[in-house]
Design brief:
This protein is mainly alpha-helical. It has one domain: Growth Hormone, Chain: A. Helices cover 74% and strands 0% of the residues.
């Protein structure tokens, strides 16, 4: 669901820029306003989920993501759109990391490996399918792809009524210094640092070039198809 907030918006950037009379160099703020709170809020969401529970963080995040997306669809101007994109990013911040956390809570051993692989495959398929759907909706207007965020509402209901998680272990008072020390110990390995740089470089290559191209393309509905083709042709996908 967190992937939807970025990959489904690229196809509408050209028509959005035309309708709101935004300069091409400013339209990238639609994506920036969304990913900044994700970068800041993801570790905070992890702390809160460990403290208060997975569902207590996941459900409000999904509903906030959906609500902000709907408001973005009806934004009267560019400033309002950016403000609510930022709010949507706050809602998206816990989604991907907590999905992995929930998987690790539910499975162990080989089942955990299979579940992680399935999750990775689902993300890959989503990166291909969301732009395709959004590219079709962009032909109707730039506002429609933002309404795709409403898919988070039934997911929130499934989390409330169908997801059964094991109880969290009892924890002592939270120590932020210990938390930071554990993070540092986890990433203080050459392989982990190399992997982080590789993921960052891949993100820049795939999304940076794609969104730059999106801002120069006059036919929004074609972008979803181009994104899908590039996704399947990429050796890293």
């Amino acid at each position: 669901m967190a992937v939807l907030g970025s990959s489904s918006i690229g196809p509408v950037l050209p028509s959005l820029a035309r309708e709101l009379k935004i300069a091409p160099e400013q339209i990238g703020l639609v994506i920036t306003a969304f990913v900044i709170p994700i970068a800041i809020g993801t570790p905070i969401a992890g702390v809160l989920a460990d403290r208060f529970g997975r569902k207590q963080i996941l459900v409000p995040a999904l509903l906030l993501f959906a609500l902000a997306g709907v408001v973005c669809a009806f934004a009267p101007n560019f400033r309002t759109l950016l403000e609510w994109r930022f709010v949507q990013g706050i809602g998206a911040a816990p989604l991907e990391s907590l999905a992995l956390t929930v998987i690790s809570d539910l499975y162990r051993g080989k089942k955990l490996t299979s579940a992680m692989a399935f999750n990775g495959s689902a993300i890959g398929i989503s990166l291909a399918v969301y732009p395709l759907i959004s590219g079709g909706l962009a032909g109707l207007g730039w506002r429609y792809p933002f309404l795709l965020s409403l898919a988070a509402v039934p997911i929130a209901l499934l989390v409330i009524f169908a997801l059964k998680l094991p109880p969290l272990p009892q924890q002592s008072d939270f120590n932020f210094q210990v938390y930071l020390r554990n993070i540092y110990q986890s990433i203080n390995h050459r392989q982990v640092v190399g992997l982080l740089f590789a993921v960052l470089a891949l993100f820049i290559l795939l999304f940076g070039a794609y969104f730059s191209r999106s801002c120069r393309n006059d036919r929004a509905h074609r972008i979803g198809w181009c994104r899908t083709i590039c996704r399947y042709r990429s050796p890293c996908s």
